[in-house]
Structure formats: C-alpha cells, structure tokens
Specification:
By secondary structure, this protein is an alpha+beta fold. It has 8 helices and 16 strands. Strands 3-2-1-4-6-5 form a 6-stranded mixed sheet, sandwiched between helices. A 5-stranded antiparallel sheet has the order 7-10-14-13-16, with no helix packed on it.
Length: 347
C-alpha cells in the first residue's frame, strides 16, 4: 500500500510544471532544463535567477517543437491572440496564420516604443492591407497600460470557450501582456518570467485570470535570422527599447555610410541625395561616414546589395528599421545569418 502511494507521489511530481516558463520541473540534473533544488517550489532555477538576478541561461529548442504546439492549438476552436512587436513586425505574418484556422485577434504591442506622432489608425490600416483574415487588429502598450481594457472586452466578445491562447515570435511581449492582465483583472498571484532575451517561455503555461477566462501562453517562435540570436546578452538588453524611440535622421549622398554599433554598416552607393531615418533603441550608437572610400570598418562582414524603392523601410530582424525616402542602391554589411529585408514604409 505504501509503495503504491509513493509511486503516485512520484508521478505527480514528474508532471509539475514551472509557473514561470512552463517546463516540467525536475531535481535530478542541474544541467537540464527545469532543474529545481526542491520540487516543493513553483519555478525552475533558470526562471528564479532570471527574475532575481537578471541572469539568462540559453535553452535551444527547434521551431519544430514550437510548431507542433501551435498545431495542437489549431485543432481547438479557441480564440487566439497573435501578439507582435511594432518595432519588429515579422516579414511573413501568414506563416502562423497558415497553421492556425482559429478565430484570431492581431495585437500590435509596444506602441509606447514608437514616437507619439505615429497614428494608431495608420498602423492598423497598414496591417489590414496584408489581408490576414483576423477578427480585429488592436494596438496596445503593456508598459503604459494602453488599450488593455479594450482588448479584454474584445476577448470576451470573440472567445468561444474559457480558454484563449497567446501566440507570436520570441520577445513579442506575450508574457508581459499576461502579467498585465493578471495584475489588472485577477486575484491570481502567478507571474510569468519575462525577459528581452529569446526563448524565455519553454512550454505552454495556463493562467486562470477569472472563472470565465484562462489565458494559455505558448513558446515564442524563434526566428533564426533575428539579430537577438547573434549577439551577447548585454547587447540584447541594449537593443530592446526601454522608452519611446527618438528617430535619428541622416541626409546621405552617394558614397556616404551609416554604421550602427559594431554589427552593421550601410553604404549608399547609388542614388540622389536621400533621407535615412533610424528607428532603433536610443541606447545604440549610430555614426555617419562622409566618405565610404576612406573607411573599411565592418567591411569584413557579409555584403548584400539592396535596391530600395521610394518610401521603403530597410528592416533588420530583431533590431528595428530604417525609413528611406528615395530610391537608391545600398551595400549592407552584417552577419550573414541575420535577416535583412525591405518593405513599404510603416511610418
């Protein structure tokens, strides 16, 4: 009788999940994810050290694992909130939409990071043009508590059951939004682990906001082309905007350059006088070179040539974007694994 009882306790312990990141807790191997000194605790050592000391332990997972989780969400008929970061809009929104046939609200997060002059209606119209077939597009800011009340009302309007899923790429702000919903509308004291670093949430985490709403956080899809995967932790924190971005505009002529920190160089090699407005974290250093022929900084990095059209953005995944007014030819020097693309200007 005693043996059966002990086995039952072991089974329960094996199923206990971290309330910070969703991983299964274990006390056997300090090198594996989910390690905890005592199974009586509720969060793993990784989450504990991230929350209390700002220390980050890299956990590498394949997108196949995350996509399998999304596919299981797609088999439900529950409402999905697709969270995206306005500073780092994905190149291909349709990727997640193709996996999830559910009713969906597209949530444009981090409005506070964009200049106040940027109009919300313009942002919504920009996304509507992508024809994503979502129920509604809502602009929010978790840090400023902006539109969170309205978002909750629309969740109640569209939800098909008690469960509502949150999906999106890493660092889009899913866990931050859930913590805001808990703080504003719930007696639940659970708090998800948040970080500007990729792969913070490792599995689904269920949070009961109230008797009518359970939010289910999912791991963020990892974009292998994001700059966040190719720089150290200190630079990741520097790249993530902590307050409203102050755009920096540079007037460039042919054979002039812009250098961002020590990881990107933009050479303007052909075109009329042009305006380059940089929308990245205020903490990052940007300098202009008046004669690219006399400076070889960062030219050892991979070079790609882009022909930009009128009113296009040059987007660096995970970093931000540069608005370019006139057409021209650019040589971009950056790590070969970082994704850079052009799009119609967001602003």
């Amino acid at each position: 009788m005693s043996s059966t009882s002990d086995e039952s306790k072991i089974a329960i312990k094996e199923e206990k999940r971290c309330k910070g990141c969703g991983v299964i807790l274990q006390d056997q191997n300090i090198l594996q994810e989910g390690y905890i000194t005592s199974l009586e605790n509720d969060i793993c050592q990784r989450c504990f050290r991230m929350k209390n000391y700002g220390e980050y332990q890299v956990v590498t997972k394949s997108n196949d694992e995350y996509i399998d989780i999304l596919k299981s969400v797609g088999k439900t008929k529950d409402l999905v909130l697709y969270i995206t970061d306005l500073i780092n809009l994905e190149e291909d929104f349709q990727k997640i939409r193709n996996i999830l046939p559910n009713k969906m609200i597209l949530v444009l997060n981090k409005k506070d990071a964009l200049p106040k002059s940027v109009k919300e209606k313009k942002l919504i119209k920009y996304l509507e043009a992508m024809n994503l077939k979502v129920e509604e597009i809502i602009v929010i800011s978790c840090s400023k508590n902006y539109n969170i009340d309205y978002l909750l009302k629309r969740i109640k309007y569209y939800q098909t059951s008690k469960n509502v899923y949150l999906v999106g790429h890493t660092n889009a702000g899913k866990s931050t939004l859930i913590n805001k919903l808990i703080k504003n509308y719930s007696d639940n004291v659970q708090e998800l682990t948040t970080s500007p670093l990729p792969s913070t949430t490792l599995n689904t985490v269920n949070i009961e906001v109230n008797e009518h709403l359970t939010i289910i956080d999912t791991p963020g899809l990892v974009d292998p082309g994001s700059i966040l995967n190719h720089i150290d932790d200190a630079m990741v924190k520097k790249i993530s905007p902590k307050k409203e971005i102050k755009p920096r505009t540079y007037q460039l002529r042919k054979n002039q350059s812009i250098i961002i920190e020590n990881f990107m160089r933009i050479d303007y090699v052909e075109g009329e006088k042009n305006s380059f407005t940089v929308y990245i974290s205020n903490d990052l250093k940007v300098k202009r070179l008046l004669n690219l022929m006399n400076n070889n900084d960062l030219k050892d990095l991979n070079k790609t040539t882009y022909n930009v059209k009128y009113d296009e953005d040059l987007v660096v995944t995970g970093l931000g974007f540069i608005k370019i007014v006139n057409k021209g030819t650019l040589d971009i020097y950056i790590d070969k694994d970082i994704n850079v693309f052009t799009r119609k200007s967001l602003i």
